[in-house]
Specification:
With 290 residues, this protein is of the alpha/beta class. It has helices spanning 4-15, 23-29, 39-43, 61-72, 78-88, 122-125, 127-132, 137-142, 171-180, 193-203, 214-228, 241-246, 258-263, 275-289; strands at 18-20, 34-38, 49-55, 98-103, 107-112, 115-120, 147-153, 156-164, 184-188, 207-209, 231-235, 249-253, 266-268. The protein has two domains: 4-45 and 167-289, Rossmann fold, CATH 3.40.50; 49-164, Calcium-transporting ATPase, cytoplasmic domain N, CATH 3.40.1110.10. Strands 1-13-12-11-2-9-10 form a seven-stranded mixed β-sheet, sandwiched between helices. The relative contact order is 0.19. It binds adenosine-5'-diphosphate and magnesium ion (MG).
């Protein structure tokens, strides 16, 4: 049975932009010792912008961008949308792509007129080649917190696009407040090590795990539960849904994907990260009353 204190706390939450799918989740929030956060769209605004486009001197810049945009047009990843937008006003030819494949957490592949293209992270296009591309240019860009998307044409890396997503203005304070309550904060991201480190430092997290595939996010949440007993996971993407389900409390950003909203126990309306600390305070107070 839901206690009157819980009912009033739930309605108080709803008025304040936090939706609980049951009193038990509100109660559980008081006991959370660690919180795992997805990066893109959760700690960051999730609206990356292209900052750099580097092309091998032997490659055709217009061809690279036209093909990349044509392939990314078929993907709904935030990086894909940003690349399409970047290419939009450049008067590039329209291309017909074939066999497009969207590899979750990695990148995309397709062929055009018999040439095979691969667009995505370093791991995806080949680590050594991506590290050496244009004298290791990716490393410097990544250390600025930029995400690197490599463009591979017929097995050879021909270019890269760097994108920067900004950390939400409220993220740093929210993390600070959680840490001051003794809560351990971790970022889980599919992005590369250098970019992840830069963003995690900017946000002030205790820890981060990079190159984290969707199924690995679940494993990390389970590992955290082993160490910290009560663990919350905050995310917004389809990718995050299994990890939200694995956590003691799954928290979705209100503007996140439907799957994340359906799977979560708690929804933050308006993507309002500081509401997590509000919710924990509310929960602690309610448990004292009960
Ligand atoms: P995050 O955990 O930060 O939300 P994802 O797991 O969605 O990131 O993706 C991890 C990495 O895979 C991205 O940083 C990017 O390098 C690469 N990637 C994924 N999807 C695409 C795409 N459509 N186009 C290019 N790169 C992609
Ligand atoms: Mg995300």
């Amino acid at each position: 049975s839901i206690m009157p204190a819980a009912l009033s706390a739930i309605s108080n939450g709803a008025r304040n932009g936090v939706l609980y799918k049951g009193g038990v989740h509100l109660e559980n929030l008081a006991h959370i010792n660690a919180i795992a956060f997805d990066k893109t769209g959760t700690l960051t605004n999730g609206k990356p912008k292209v900052t750099d486009f580097l092309v091998d001197p032997d490659a055709d810049e217009n061809e690279l961008l036209a093909v990349t945009a044509a392939i990314e047009q078929e993907s709904n990843h935030p990086l894909a949308q940003a690349i399409v937008l970047y290419a939009a006003d450049k008067n590039l030819p329209e291309l017909t792509i074939e066999n497009m494949q969207d590899v979750s957490g990695q990148g995309v592949t397709a062929s055009i007129q018999g040439v095979q293209w691969k667009i995505g992270k370093g791991d995806f296009v080949g680590n050594e080649q991506s590290r050496n591309f244009m004298g290791g240019a990716a490393q410097g860009l990544a250390s600025e917190g930029k995400t690197i998307v490599f463009i591979e044409r017929g097995g050879i890396i021909a270019g890269l696009i760097a994108l920067k997503d900004t950390v939400r203005k409220e993220t740093k304070q929210a993390i600070e407040t959680l840490k001051s309550r003794g809560i351990y904060t971790v970022m889980l991201t599919g992005d590369n090590e250098t970019t992840a480190k830069a963003i995690a430092e900017e946000a002030g997290l205790n820890h981060y795990i990079a190159e984290c595939m969707p199924d690995e996010k679940v494993k990390e949440v389970k590992r955290l539960k082993h160490h910290f007993q009560q663990v919350a996971m905050v995310g917004d993407g389809i990718n995050d849904a299994p990890a939200l389900a694995a956590a003691n409390v799954g928290i979705a950003m209100g503007e996140g994907t439907d799957v994340a909203l359906e799977t979560a126990d708690v929804v933050l309306m308006k993507n309002d990260l500081p509401k997590i600390t509000k919710a924990i305070q509310l929960s602690t107070r309610m448990n004292k009353i009960v």
